[in-house]
Amino acid sequence: MKIRWCPYLGEELPEDSFNEEHIIPLSLGGSNKLTIDVEKKINAELGRKLDSKIGKAPIVSSARKHYSLKGRSKLEPRKDSRKDSRDTSPIFN
User: Fold this and answer.
1) Which residue pairs, CB below 8 angstroms and at least 24 apart, start in 15-18?
2) Nearest alpha-carbon partner for 55 in 43, 47, 44, 67
3) 63 has a pLDDT exceeding 90
4) Domain boundaries, the chain
5) Which residues are 11's β-sheet partners?
């Protein structure tokens, strides 16, 4: 069994426990050209908890609109209809 090092966990793990981490998430207009291999579970957790918060940040949304960066859905970023779109909940519990 081949062992690889995960940069997120700082641990050596079996190769079959890795998948691709998109440095710029596909949901934010990233591509498959800039990726690193990381442990699957931490990658999924970070994607769930971090990517959507980054995508909702006003500066990121503005930049995506300015440069016409569409997400995985191929749609322009939506304007948040809430009065205050800032999410202050912690990323990790």
Assistant:
1) 17/41
2) 47
3) no
4) 3-66
5) 6
